[in-house]
Amino acid sequence: MIRRLGYLAIAVLVAATIGFFTVVAPYLDHRMNRVEPASLPPVADSVTALHTTLTIVDLHADPLLWPRDLNARASHGHIDVPRLIEGNVAIQLFGVVTKTPPGQNYQQNRADKDRITLLAIASRWPPRTWHDLLQRALYQSARLHQTATGSAGRLRVVTSGEELRQFLQDRSANRARVAGILAMEGLQALGGNLARLDTLYDAGFRVMGLTHFFDNEVGGSSAGEVKGGLTEFGRAVISRMEEKQILVDIAHASPRVISDVLDMATRPVIVSHTGVQTVCPGPRNLTDDQIRRVAANGGIIGIGYWDAAVCDPSPAGIARTIKSVVDLVGADHVALGSDFDGGTTTRFDTSDLAQITAALLEAGLTADQVREVMGGNAVRLLQQGLPTR
Length: 389
Fold this sequence. Notes:
By secondary structure, the chain is α/β, with parallel strands linked by helices.
């Protein structure tokens, strides 16, 4: 009897272990990255004709965090290579998340606890990533490069302005391909060590957000406890990023960090995924003054597709927010920043981006303005801002 109970306990433990490694991470992916059932309006043939001529850029999405084969079309979530091609996306910035706080919110989060550890273990990431934020970043970089290698030429990782220009030239002959650019979401992986920035650069990272949902050694987050400005270390990080031609992303940054960065930046910055406070109030979204300062810097602002960014996450609601930026500073400083697969619920996935094209035209933008917003502005900044070697 005792032996039988022992075997039963072992069987239960084995079943629980198998379930943990096969169920938990996919369950979280399905639950956190949803497309709401919604009736999307048909897209007119004239809009489709315009959409197919666009060079579309999305400044932020997080699919590398989840246990999916990005070369296969998934039935859940928002992004993979087949759906990027269906949506006519030319360039996708792949955000890399290394740490998120329990109870994550837009008001205030502590920096001493982490939810990614459980996801990393459940997703069977290498043990070196379980408690090392730098290793998590390097692992996700390797995942993107491996996806590109297995994509039969449909995905190409780009790390310089020359590589981007060559990709766009090649894509003009075959649009069934996407360029991927690696972007950090918060520089907590540096751990206060400036040499680690070079390590991330060598791994292919070319865009770096300074903070995520909590304050770190670089400076304050819009959702941190202190929400301070750039630290002395943070100023050294900005200088080193500009020296290496890494684009500075001030999404998630505290108002003081945004101001400090714009005071010292000598190159255009990006706000990869955000909203506008006059349209959708919230501490995560930009004020009109911040939008004007980013425009004066020559930077661009990626508008997100989720509720806290735009309040109305329909294509029309997203277009309304984009138009507010166009009306404020012109069409040269606004772009797309979906935050697809960032634990967000949206009305559509990346294969349905023609809905945004249609909504922008309906909102009153001209075809030339739509062309700039959907990707022209981002292409121009990336070609100028990425490393020349």
